[in-house]
Amino acid sequence: MSYCLGFPGKIIFGEGKLESLPLELEGKAKILLVVGNHTVKSGVASRVIGLLNDFEVLEISGIQAEPPLDDVDMIINAGRNFEADAVVAIGGGSVIDAAKAAAAIIPFEGDCAEYFYGVRSIATAGLFFVALPTTSGTGTEATSNAVLTDPETDIKKSIRHHCMYPDVAIVDPELTYSCSPALTAHSGLDAFTQAIESYISKGANTVSRTLAAKAATLVFNSIDTACSEPDNRAARSAMAEGSMMTAMAFAQSSLGAVHGLAHPIGARLHIPHGLCCAILLPLILRWNMDTCEDKLKVLAAKCNCEDAGNFIDQIQALCRRLGVPENFKEFGLNKKHYDFILKNCRSGSMRSNPRHLEDDEIIRILETLS
Q: Where are the alpha helices (DSSP H) in the chain?
């Protein structure tokens, strides 16, 4: 086996590590600070601004979930006018993805849509970029892509390049304490899905599987507690570390059919990404089991489940405990959406799924969940 690995320039993990931000920005002068709405309300944004007293700071907020191209352009234009020499993003996956894309584009010509649709391409590193996640889910602080949405077409996909890894990722579990139980559940189930899909992916390697297995165990064993006891330090730390590790894994391996389908379904029906993944996960694993039962058995053992089938049963039970519906009926999924989903689900994630799914099989999956 041969493989090539890519990770952020530096990862700083641990409680209180937010305080290291000024040191990581040494030599920079003008900081474009992109913050999430919840980060502003919780007071975390004020803490960050307080740490940046020695810098000239322009703050940008108001980034929407499933970040639309216009939000990225807002950051790009602000960064160019401000002549920023670094971008710092503190928030959930949408905030970090929008800021990551903007940091990659600001020094160059063009708007976000040109890069999104391939008119232009990322060629070299953009602005110095620091990511500070306030949720434990997408793991975008450890990846080289940014997932964006064009609301005019409902197309959701990634801008991606190896130079888009954050220069610094500061993963401080204390920043996640203010997450609601629902956000903790949805983001955590996204991380768990990513860990499983990375482990069974056709693109997995020894390193990615080691990271994915550990990540799956951390999240599976801590998500219930993190949702019911938001201030539980051990659970929050395990969730933050698990989310980070699962992203380090899938950045090497790619994902699978859950994510291949979640992007077009979520974009068309406007469903939070983590919730969309959680609805899909048990059914897709049952479809995949014939081709990856041995790998699921390994994960089952690590999560103290009897076998692959019991592991999927336990995942389904976990989703029900955390309030995840069994299907997409309440969101209005029906036959009129199937063509759009089929057209837009054949991403890199779908190509890495352990079992190739024909169009008629995808239709059967959608019918089961409608």
A: 21-24, 37-42, 44-51, 69-82, 93-105, 112-116, 181-200, 206-228, 233-253, 257-269, 273-302, 308-321, 338-344, 348-351, 359-369
